[in-house]
Design a protein that fits this description.
The complex is a heterodimer of chains A (290) and B (279). With 290 residues, chain A is mainly α. Chain A contains 13 helices and two strands. Chain B contains 13 helices and no strands. The chains are: A mainly alpha (290), B mainly alpha (279).
Chain lengths: 290, 279
């Protein structure tokens, strides 16, 4: 044990790289963004002008904001259960002794390392009227469709793409959780005559609770931020049917330079995201304590 | 165990293999299509199933985009940014992680909570002030703007602190008794020991940074400073003259470094992803 402060001065040097980036790229922007959300601010016209809660009042009355929030919620609520259940099934399958296991795992994981821009470009073509999906449908004798040009199907098509792209990532996390479960528990269950699905319901799921919580929280934070897909594939259209909140605030900030209003949108979305995360923690933690 | 039960179990086993195989095809099909389209001779019919296995195979799309300027430049920009950001994270996350793991200092607790809190803050909240600050400092369209915000990633510091904390103290104490300076102890004793964790940090930082989109999009506006993902996305929006062959050749080129890293370091990538789940 050495006395505290013996090598005091050099500690600052070790911390300095992070202190600088933390201050410049986290603390300052957080404080500034909060302040700017109470101002009218177009950098071309001049410095921010304090307008109190006007931006937040405008947001509550802005039908486009509500449309964007609704689309974002549909995206979150639609993709997360599919992705989570899909990832769990894939992980359960990959956790068995299988031929070519490494190949299967690598293939499922592949899409998650490819950039979302590239994935979105591929699927933009895939869903286009003369694209791959319609070609397959016509082989099966089914009619084609302009998936991304129809307000009724555009958001759903993007959501399915996202599930495709994300399943492998969460499967890998579930797989790590599964491998941490002691095999004896299953052996004991087998002796008691527990069948495959009952075994998973009574042993696997309860023991995966913390993994599940982690997956739900990070997937929720990510899904609320959906942006690249929209930017590349639809730019929010047709008829705002794929307009998500981050895309809307990007549009306000960088196409109309309404930085004050865009900041208020950012904080509103942050509050919604935080609320959703707290709900998971409540639900899954309480069960865990019982 | 009766033979009937074994039979049922075998059948379940094969159903899973078949299910996974269908999944495998679904996972790889869009990526095969991407490669197929990039290898298509210009003028060959576009669209439909023939995109998967084009014949004759042609490298013209690749020659075109490499000769036409911007793609080569995008690639260079992405490479410069990724290399500097990876190097910075390897050095700095070890330094900061070491300070949090081994040193006592004023405000350590609150600072650590501050670091963890940054993991929760979404980019959409901080991007506007960072854009304004960058513009005020006249750093739009510079490598500085593309690199500085990502030099010390909080998650990497988190990983390094956990790793360094579980290293034995003996070697550091021995070096200290021998009169080694604090810098020597860090660079010659601790840093080499953290190599396995630094591999995870380096590889995952590369993957994330190579695919980074939002900040590079708002912090650049000249074609010569775009990175690959931003360049590709904006090229696709030039509605009149989008050539899918060119676009997919660019997509393949931008995916190639990632694929190489993935094939070589798959284990490290998975370690990096699952490290967070253990919290």
């Amino acid at each position: 044990m050495h006395t505290p402060g013996r090598h005091g001065p050099s500690t600052l040097v070790f911390l300095l790289p992070w202190l600088l980036t933390f201050g410049i790229f986290a603390l300052y922007p957080l404080a500034d963004s909060f302040w700017v959300s109470f101002t009218r601010y177009n950098p071309i016209q001049g410095p921010p002008v304090f307008i109190g809660l006007d931006n937040y009042a405008r947001l509550l009355r802005d039908p486009i904001f509500w449309t964007s929030l609704r689309n974002t919620l549909i995206f979150v609520v639609g993709t997360i259960p599919l992705t989570t259940v899909g990832a769990l099934l894939v992980a359960l399958a990959l956790n068995r002794h299988l031929p070519m296991k490494a190949l299967f795992r690598a293939a499922w994981f592949m899409p998650t390392i490819v950039s979302m821009v590239v994935i979105s470009l591929v699927f933009k073509n895939f869903y286009s009227p003369f694209g791959f999906l319609n070609a397959i449908l016509s082989l099966l004798g089914l009619p084609g469709h302009a998936w991304l040009q129809d307000p009724d199907t555009a958001l759903g098509a993007i959501m399915l793409m996202d599930v495709w792209a994300a399943v492998g990532y969460y499967a890998v996390i579930f797989l790590a959780g599964l491998q941490a479960i002691p095999a004896e528990l299953y052996e004991a269950a087998a002796l008691d005559g527990g069948s495959g699905w009952r075994k998973h319901w009574h042993i696997t799921l309860p023991l995966l609770r913390s993994t599940m919580l982690f997956i739900l929280v990070i997937n929720t934070i990510r899904s609320f931020q959906v942006f690249i897909e929209i930017f590349v594939m639809t730019r929010g259209g047709p008829l705002d049917s794929t307009l998500t909140t981050v895309y809307y605030l990007y549009d306000r900030a960088f196409n109309s330079f309404e930085l004050g209003y865009a900041s208020a949108l950012a904080w509103a979305l942050f509050a919604v995201t935080l609320g959703a995360s707290l709900v998971y923690v409540r639900v899954l933690k309480d069960r865990g304590a019982a | 165990m009766s033979s009937r039960m074994v039979g049922a179990r075998d059948r379940g086993h094969w159903l899973i293999v078949i299910g996974l195989s269908i999944g495998l095809v679904t996972m790889l099909l869009p990526l095969v299509w991407m490669v197929g389209t990039s290898l298509k001779a210009v003028g060959a019919g576009l669209g439909g199933l023939s995109d998967l296995l084009p014949w004759p195979v042609s490298l013209k799309n690749y020659r075109d985009i490499l000769a036409s300027g911007p793609f080569g430049r995008y690639f260079l920009n992405s490479a410069v940014v990724a290399i500097v950001v990876v190097a910075g994270n390897i050095l700095f996350s070890a330094m900061v992680g070491y300070a949090f793991a081994r040193r006592r200092f004023v405000g350590k607790g609150p600072l650590w909570w501050g670091l963890l809190a940054t993991l929760m803050v979404p980019k959409q909240v901080t991007m506007i002030p960072i854009y304004v600050l960058t513009a005020k400092l006249h750093l739009i369209n510079t490598y500085t703007a593309l690199i500085a915000p990502f030099l010390v990633d909080a998650f990497n510091v988190f990983l390094m602190r956990s790793y360094i904390e579980q290293l034995p103290h003996d070697l550091e104490e021995a070096a200290r008794v021998d009169g080694a300076s604090e810098w020597r102890i860090f660079f010659n004793v601790v840093f080499p020991l953290t190599r396995p964790a630094l591999a995870v940090v380096g590889i995952n930082t590369f993957l994330v940074n190579w695919n980074n989109f939002l900040y590079p999009l708002i912090l650049t506006n000249s074609d010569s400073m775009r990175t690959l993902p931003v360049g590709l996305a904006l090229y696709a929006q030039g509605e009149n003259s989008v050539s899918w062959g060119h676009l997919m050749a660019g997509s393949c080129l931008s995916t190639l470094p990632i694929l190489v890293v993935f094939v070589i370091f798959q284990r490290h990538i998975i370690e990096g992803i699952t490290a967070g789940a253990g919290k």
